[in-house]
Amino acid sequence: MYKLEVGKPYIEGKTRWPDASQFVYDRCGLMLSIFAGHLKESEIEAVRKGQVELAIYENQPAVFLLYRIKGFGPWSDVPYSIHLVSPENRPDIKPLIIEGQKLLMTIILVDADTGIIKALRAVSTSTAFTVALNQAVMRQAKQTFSQTEYNRHVNSLYARYSSDQMAVMAEGKHRAGE
């Protein structure tokens, strides 16, 4: 485990990142890391305190986390596969979610030009989001996996759909914060 702290490097010694996002769902929970360059103070503040919208778009073998942060940008997405998580770190997926059960997601904003963490925030998900995510990942876990086929499938979806279109088709929509 490593310590995350605003004003410190995301990973010691790494100062450049591509503009991208990474979604991790493992034994430690949910973590969304957003790497963005040329950040404005208003964008940093939006990630710190703005309304967060989350959704799940399932198109197996891929599950996409969709997110939009008010004041930060349009809908964005990150593909996920439980098969890319080492077996010892896979999340404990429960088939039955009781009403009110939620997950905690850590959101990290990293300046892609410096590698420095600019914002760090935790948001609680809704029961609907938790159910949609867990059911999609349970279905995914039961499938055989090919990295090549997964990559091909994700690329084909990107050729057909924008993040906005995936958000329209998504399930488990949730709003947090503000």
What do these coordinates show?
With about 180 residues, this protein is of the alpha+beta class. The protein has a domain at about 20-25 and about 40-105 and about 125-175. Helices cover about 25% and strands about 35% of the residues. The chain contains four helices and eight strands. Strand 3 (about 50-60) and strand 4 (about 60-70) form a beta hairpin. The relative contact order is 0.24.
Features of the shown structure:
178 residues; 4-stranded mixed sheet; 4-stranded antiparallel sheet; 33% strand; globular
Brief sketch in words of this structure:
It contains four helices and eight strands.
Largest sheet: 4 strands, mixed
Pick out the low-confidence regions: none
The helix content is 25-40%
**Total beta-strand segments:** 8
Distance between the termini: 29 Å
**How much is the radius of gyration in Å?**
16 Å
Q: How many helical elements? A: 4
Q: Looking across the biggest beta sheet, what order are the strands in?
A: 1-2-6-7
Counting helices, strands and paired strands, the structural category is: alpha+beta
- SSE order: EEHEEEEEHHHE
Q: DSSP strand (E) fraction?
A: 25-35%
* Backbone shape: globular
User: What is the averaged pLDDT score?
Assistant: 93
Topology of helices and strands:
Layout: E1 20-26, E2 29-36, H1 41-49, E3 52-59, E4 62-69, E5 76-80, E6 104-111, E7 117-124, H2 127-141, H3 147-160, H4 163-169, E8 171-176
Parallel strand pairs: 2-6
Antiparallel strand pairs: 1-2, 3-4, 3-8, 4-5, 6-7
